[in-house]
């Protein structure tokens, strides 16, 4: 049966404690497997501890005796935090290796009894409707393509961002709260501040010159991964060559990008904040607030370097946000 595929890209803005298994839920349209598994490197590093962890701790300060979902849990960083704050937690991840890492982390943290770890797709969770009062979707959007509507004579199927957010909406209670975390400042190179910017720029240029248009993803990941002083940077293919993103306006909704993060380099899909907002609104949520954390000036930046023995955040963090956080309610 021939299908019609419609892309829903970014458009102008308009305005029980333990979850039970769920048999149904929307189907997940199979995506082509990449040459390697997605890894949650974005959740590692000094910038996460400086800018993101305090926000999550504040949001989840009063979640004791509630049910929390960590969707796309990676190595269970946020599931552990929720459990330590007294919540009953379900953590779902689709990659076996990350599930193994999450289980090990839960045991080491001593909270394995409070966290139910499941394998599942990000567009079809194994939980009943209205199971959670709080939820986290941290760096999941980057592994999902833009919303696509797959139409045939017999059915209509939605995949991508909308499928993920609709599934979150399904499993959340009325008035449930959701945090969505995505990368920020795609056109900024974040460094650890140990070298001058001109030196880092030169190393990036030399590294890109070594990447051939016929290199496979694993080889590209290894070459970009050698950028030791670069905490976060974004790359995209233009005219067959990988280039550094220097203007986010040049990126297209849903196109593949490379992200260099503290633990390596991986393929993502690009989604602007506007596209995320449209998907949030399309799926029955309301965005209360958006935060783009950074030092915001020299005072906090200097205090950080004075008080942190192993300070490792460069000047880009003065005014640019490494993450964007959407505070969402059902």
- Overall strand count: 15
Tally of individual domains:
2
CATH homologous superfamily placement of the largest domain: Vaccinia Virus protein VP39
Gross morphology: globular
Determine the fraction of residues in helical runs and give it as a percent range: 25-40%
State the order of secondary-structure elements, H for helix, E for strand.
EHEHEHEEEEHEEHHEEEEHEHE
Could you characterize what this model shows?
- The protein folds into 2 domains: 4-8 and 16-184 and 271-297 and 322-329, Vaccinia Virus protein VP39 (Rossmann fold, 3-Layer(aba) Sandwich); 190-269, no CATH class.
- It contains 8 helices and 15 strands.
- It has helices at residues 46-59, 77-84, 96-109, 161-171, 197-209, 217-224, 273-282, 298-307, and strands at 4-8, 67-71, 88-93, 115-119, 132-138, 147-151, 156-159, 172-183, 190-191, 230-238, 241-244, 256-261, 264-269, 286-291, 323-329.
- A 7-stranded mixed sheet has the order 4-3-2-5-8-15-14, with helices on both faces.
- The longest helix has 14 residues, at 46-59.
- Mean pLDDT is 87; it is low at 1-41.
């Amino acid at each position: 049966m021939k299908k019609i595929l419609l892309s829903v890209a970014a458009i102008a803005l308009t305005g029980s404690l333990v979850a039970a298994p769920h048999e149904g839920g929307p189907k997940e349209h199979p995506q082509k497997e990449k040459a390697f598994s997605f890894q949650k490197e974005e959740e590692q590093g000094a910038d996460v501890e400086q800018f993101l962890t305090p926000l999550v701790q504040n949001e989840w300060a009063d979640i004791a005796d509630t049910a929390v979902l960590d969707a796309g849990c990676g190595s269970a960083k946020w599931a552990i935090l929720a459990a330590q704050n007294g919540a009953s937690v379900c953590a779902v991840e689709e990659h076996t290796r990350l599930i193994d890492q999450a289980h090990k982390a839960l045991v080491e943290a001593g909270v394995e009894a409070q966290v139910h770890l499941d394998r599942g797709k990000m567009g079809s969770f194994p939980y009943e409707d209205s199971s959670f009062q709080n939820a986290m979707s941290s760096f999941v959007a980057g592994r999902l393509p833009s919303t696509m509507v797959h139409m045939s004579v017999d059915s209509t199927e939605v995949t991508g961002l909308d499928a993920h957010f609709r599934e979150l909406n399904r499993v959340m209670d009325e008035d449930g709260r959701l945090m969505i975390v995505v990368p920020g400042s795609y056109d900024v190179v974040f460094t650890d501040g140990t070298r001058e910017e001109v030196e880092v720029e030169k190393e990036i240029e030399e590294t890109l010159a070594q990447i051939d248009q016929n290199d496979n993803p694993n080889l590209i990941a290894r070459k970009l991964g050698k950028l030791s002083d670069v905490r976060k940077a974004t790359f995209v293919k233009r005219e067959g060559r990988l280039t550094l993103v220097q203007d986010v306006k040049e990126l297209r909704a849903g196109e593949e990008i490379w992200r260099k993060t503290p633990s390596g380099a991986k393929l993502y899909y690009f989604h602007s904040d506007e596209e995320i907002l449209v998907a949030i609104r399309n799926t029955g949520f309301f965005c209360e607030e958006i935060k783009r954390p950074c030092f915001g000036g020299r005072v906090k930046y200097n205090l950080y370097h004075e008080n942190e023995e192993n300070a490792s955040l460069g000047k880009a963090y003065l005014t640019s946000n490494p993450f964007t956080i959407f505070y969402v309610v059902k």
